[in-house]
Amino acid sequence: EVQLVESGGGSVQSGGSLRLSCAASRSTIVILGWFRQAPGKEREGVAAVASNGGTRYADFVKGRFTISRDNAENVVYLQMNSLIPEDTAMYYCATSSYGLGLVARMYNNWGQGTQVTVSS
Length: 120
Known about the structure:
The model has no long low-confidence stretch (mean pLDDT 95). Helix content is 0%, strand content 50%. It contains no helices and 11 strands. It starts with a strand and ends with a strand. It is globular, with a radius of gyration of 13 Å. By secondary structure, the chain is mainly β. A hairpin with a 4-residue loop joins strand 7 (65-70) and strand 8 (75-80).
């Protein structure tokens, strides 16, 4: 089972930026995705990237967030710009072998998460 470790979360003001990182314990991971969960809300998909570089984004982050991966280092990044208070959540990375989707049940390995807090 692959181990995932997220980092890069923190507290920023509205309009600020953060870069999240997720380090995987091994390579050959087909799909890496970022999800988030705010208190009292369901976990929702944010972005995903395939091993061939294909990406998919949730509508609410298009134009603001960018997902990328470094296959040599087994790391996936989430660059978050123009942050708004509604982006406040615990952010998780996860792996999937089922395709470039943003549905949590398609993912079977999860990290512990990193907290992002955006103040107005």
